[in-house]
Write a structure and sequence with these properties.
Layout: H1 5-15, H2 22-29, E1 44-51, E2 61-70, E3 73-83, H3 92-98, H4 102-106, H5 111-122, E4 126-129, H6 133-147, E5 155-157, H7 158-168, H8 180-186, H9 197-218, H10 224-228
Parallel strand pairs: 1-4, 4-5
Antiparallel strand pairs: 1-2, 2-3
Amino acid sequence: MLWGWFSLEAQKQRLLPKVGHPVARRYLETPFADKKTPVEDLEYLVLDFETTGLDARKDAILSMGYTEIRQGRVQMGSCVHRIIKLNITLPPETVVVHKITDDRMSQGIHLHDALHELVERMTGKVLIAHFEHIERTFLQAAMERVYGCKMPLQILDTLEIEKRKREQLQQVIIPRQFRLGNLRQAYNLPRYGAHNALQDAIATAELFLAEMTYIQKESKGIRLTDLLG
């Protein structure tokens, strides 16, 4: 469930005395974007995680990929892809899906280092993910582990944006149509390989811009509040 803007800011203020790491404190001290801001005036960080499973309580982040959107463009120079070093042996089915082997994982970075870097990049930006439940729950689980608390997030979901659009058009909702690759195809975007965190982050960023182009043709003056639902 998405909290209101004022509730999110209140949560930040309540957490500040409990958080000591400077990166986390800067994140909490920086206000979220005003919900009245036009979408084209915002800066975004588009995020994707590959994980060892779907349950943030027992599974782990295997890799992170993210990129920025500014002035209606994906900033390719801002792209980051991090493999997380885990103290486990990856099951064969995970290696098949994500193509990350134990040897490659052993050369990754620790979660706390990756998280500090990510939170620093998140500060002052609106997050975007496709089916944001995964990124939200795993990110907050990582925050709780590293910083001692789950910090609030301001995050848009390209899947939910598309679902609301189709509901307004009174179209039949078919779940498989909302997979990232299928939605990109619907917007005539090129096909990318799946299960790579950075590729999926870039794919989500391009999908978001395509969605915004469509929505702004139909309705002028779209603001952040219109996308948060």
